[in-house]
Amino acid sequence: MSWELLLWLLALCALLLLVVQLLRFLWADGDLTLLWAEWQGRRPEWELTDMVVWVTGASSGIGEELAYQLSKLGVSLVLSARRVHELERVKRRCLENSNLKEKDILVLPLDLTDIGSHEAATKAVLQEFGRIDILVNNGGVSQRSLCMDTSLDVYRKLIELNYLGTVSLTKRVLPYMIERKQGKIVTVNSLLGIIAAPLSSGYCASKHALRGFFNSLRTELATYPGIIVSNICPGPVQSNIVANSLTGEVTKTVGNGGHQSYKMATSRCVRLMLISMANDLKEVWISEHPILAAAYLWQYMPTWAWWITNKMGKKRIENFKSGVDADSSYFNILKRKRD
Ligand SMILES: NC(=O)c1ccc[n+]([C@@H]2O[C@H](COP(=O)([O-])OP(=O)(O)OC[C@H]3O[C@@H](n4cnc5c(N)ncnc54)[C@H](O)[C@@H]3O)[C@@H](O)[C@H]2O)c1
């Protein structure tokens, strides 16, 4: 074979690879590093077995699914949220669907806003399992209300729960990880911790604050390469997040999450989270388009991002005011095109 032909063949292969990656990106449901890790990286089944994992917000949605997938990997689990009976239900399902035994799962009720209880809770985990390999800061609530209709109590609650509650628990667990020079602190942030949307000013603020906190903390822990600080940033995922969202008043939640078929399946989001944990990724974006594309625009072309966000945002407010889920309409158009 002549050199010229060989070069042409190589160029063709490179072009094909580029096209495949471009198609992957167009149909992506995660950022490129994450998808690369899914394709070529370490498997959760190899990396996450025999670990002690503490999941907050484990009674519903992403945290609940995380409990099911982690239990199949053979980890020791600590399940925390406020409602014990819901945690017991999740524990029973974990035991039914995995090889874990009763002693491998600790149900530990915890209110993230009750920061005075966090030290005792941490000690209870250490007493039961002797160590904490992974803390998954997942518990949190969202918001659906316009700024001018929202009381200051709602903003206070979102910061106390999503931000301060998470920071407090992390500060309790971190000294034990530093002592062992290893551990993973995985925080379920949101793409709304990077981009912004109307109806969620308090939620966005709490998630932006979390991202700033953990990015700064990571730099302080640079001398401990065995401690991984990871921000998971999902877009819309099927869960109770909308139903449980705060409205203009702190005592009122949305109550009805509406139909969710347009959102990413909880199981897919959690699988990508596990891949991120197995590969020690520091920040991952988990979402389908158009929110994923919007995140890239916000990162690289903020002026265009604002133009599009204002258009999508206007629609979001119209949807909300007419009683349908804020994001449903533009997702539905894309789903119809795919189906
Ligand atoms: N579902 C989404 O579309 C989405 C998108 C981006 C980020 N997130 C984030 O994912 C995380 C999990 O949310 P989800 O979607 O599973 O919603 P969800 O409402 O189904 O679950 C939230 C969990 O947090 C717990 N929780 C609420 N208040 C608490 C408190 N004071 N103390 C302890 N636990 C408390 C709830 O009991 C529940 O277990 C949240 O941090 C949320 O911000 C969700």
Automatic annotation (TrEMBL):
One of its GO terms (cellular component) is endoplasmic reticulum membrane. It comes from the Eukaryota. Keywords: Oxidoreductase. One of its GO terms (molecular function) is all-trans-retinol dehydrogenase (NADP+) activity. InterPro entries: NAD(P)-bd_dom_sf, Sc_DH/Rdtase_CS, SDR_fam, SDR_family_member_7. PROSITE patterns: ADH_SHORT. The keyword Disulfide bond does not apply. Belongs to the short-chain dehydrogenases/reductases (SDR) family. This is Dehydrogenase/reductase 7. It comes from Callithrix jacchus. The gene is DHRS7.
